[in-house]
Design a protein that fits this description.
This protein is of the alpha+beta class. Among the domains are: about 60 residues, MutS, DNA mismatch repair protein, domain I (3-Layer(aba) Sandwich); about 50 residues, DNA polymerase, domain 1, CATH 1.10.150; about 160 residues, Dna Ligase, domain 1. About 40% of the residues lie in helices and about 20% in strands. The protein is built from 13 helices and 13 strands. It has a five-stranded mixed beta sheet. The longest helix is centred in the middle third of the chain and has 21 residues. It starts with 15 loop residues before the first strand and ends in a 33-residue tail after the last helix. The chain binds a DNA duplex (18 and 18 nucleotides) through α9, α10, β9 and β12.
DNA sequence: TCTGGGGTCCTAGGACCC
DNA sequence: TCTGGGGTCCTAGGACCC
């Protein structure tokens, strides 16, 4: 969908592309199981998953969408095909795609498992026009993965992202930077990445509905209410988002897992078992990345809202048993028997393991040295034979619990959760 | 439609200090 | 001990993303 006027070989002062895989997980399923091609397919977390993570375009055409309940979707479309997610496969495909993009242009920001921003500005010297480079990127994705993607290209990241979703699937949308402001004029502000309900409401109350309205609003109003992000929004609406791309893999601020459980669970043992499961996952992930944390957030979502606490270990660590000890404390002191439907265990401010000289062996519930060796052995087995092959006995009953993948998974760094 | 799961960043305001 | 002035740290909560 390239407008002929826009295919001009001039050098853009700044050129940003966004590559977005179409219905990524569902497309991988269809690629690997051709009988799914052209059919309505919904991907869920495991066979038991009741929430649709993503679905094919055939399903979307019927009105099915991400986040929908499976039973609801089946009412719309009885012949809907459910596929359990295969996180390891998606992770692998994603990694290969990101590497392929990097070979075309080195300046790639991995935005999520199925999206990447590419700053193609410098590559213009090598390849020529940004439009041509975008073609190369699209080709690279297809040659590597056999999958189609949508590309948006413009002079800033927000406009590029907006462009990418204009023609899906298999889109190719160019908005030259000098046309961005004009083309956004009639676009609802909430279409832009970064403006959701809260900010959208604030803007609407001030008469700003489409991007063109933003000029009526002094930037200072947004800055006062939302700080720097507010200031950025003002520019975004005019096709001039100043935000640069971020290439560094930064250390994570938190590492956590949560799980929704049967509603109104009141059995202490069941709650503790779920917490144990989250504990095993969080601590294993910390160890895999050679991280530890001192503070953990442990919380239960009850019918009356969240209860829980941030608890500190005497010394930063990642020992499953110590962490579980914190969970027991939270249940003992913060839970009064209310119905629980969700548990959460999160390590806050994880940092690389510090080699400490334990001159005064701090009194902790477990022997740290021994614990370290034990978990090194457990992790080694699980790395080789699959997650949770070796796991606390109470979790065995639940061992069918699937690995989940979130669209926020990134192929590099710590957000690799599987 | 929100009970899927996993994250990020920012701000206001209180406590505390000199 | 009478609306000084400036700084830090921490937390809760809001907003947003895929």
């Amino acid at each position: 969908m390239v407008d002929s006027r826009t295919v001009c070989p001039v050098h853009w002062p700044r050129a940003i592309a966004l590559v977005d895989m179409n219905a990524f997980f569902a497309s991988v399923e269809a690629r690997d199981f051709p009988r799914l091609l052209g059919k309505p397919v919904a991907v869920t977390n495991g066979e038991q998953g009741t929430c649709i993570i993503t679905c094919s375009y055939e399903a979307r055409a019927i009105g099915i969408y991400t986040g929908m309940r499976l039973y609801e979707a089946r009412q719309l479309c009885p012949e809907l095909i459910q596929r359990p997610a295969r996180p390891e496969v998606y992770a692998q495909v994603s990694t290969e795609i990101m590497q392929a993009l990097t070979r075309v242009c080195p300046d790639v920001e991995v935005f999520s498992v199925d999206e990447a921003f590419i700053d193609v500005t410098p590559c213009q010297r090598l390849y020529g026009s940004p439009v041509y480079i975008a073609r190369l990127l699209k080709q690279a994705v297809f040659q590597t993965s056999g999958l189609l993607c949508s590309i948006g290209i413009s002079g800033d990241r927000t406009t590029a992202k907006y462009a990418a979703k204009l023609n899906k699937p298999d889109g190719f949308t160019v908005i030259p930077p000098w046309e961005a402001r004009e083309q956004l004029k009639q676009v609802a502000v909430t279409e832009l990445c970064g403006i959701a309900k809260g900010i959208g409401r604030f803007l609407a109350e001030r008469g700003v509905h489409v991007c063109g309205d933003m000029q009526k609003l002094p930037i200072g109003i947004l800055a006062k209410r939302f700080g720097n992000p507010g200031r950025r929004i003002w520019y975004m609406a005019q096709g001039a988002d100043p935000e640069p791309l971020h290439y560094d893999v930064v250390a994570p601020r938190s590492i956590g897992h949560g799980k929704v459980m049967p509603p109104d669970t009141r059995e202490r043992d069941v709650i503790l078992t779920y917490l144990m499961h989250m504990t095993v996952k969080v601590s294993a992930r910390l160890r895999r990345h050679h991280l530890e944390a001192q503070t953990y957030l442990i919380a239960l979502n009850t019918m009356q809202g969240w209860v829980g606490d941030k608890l500190k270990l005497a010394v930063a660590g990642n020992d499953t048993r110590e962490l579980y000890g914190l969970c027991q404390r939270v249940v003992r002191y913060h839970w009064q028997g209310q119905g629980v439907y969700q548990v959460q265990v999160t390590a806050l401010d994880p940092h690389p393991i510090k080699q400490q000289i334990d001159m005064f062996d701090v009194k902790t519930p477990v022997n740290r040295e021994q614990g370290k060796k034990l978990f090194q052995a457990i992790d080694a087995v699980n790395d080789r034979y699959g997650e949770m092959v070796l796991t606390p006995a109470v979790l065995l009953r639940r061992s069918k619990m699937p690995n989940v993948i979130s669209p926020a998974w990134k192929p590099f760094g710590h957000r690799k959760t599987i």
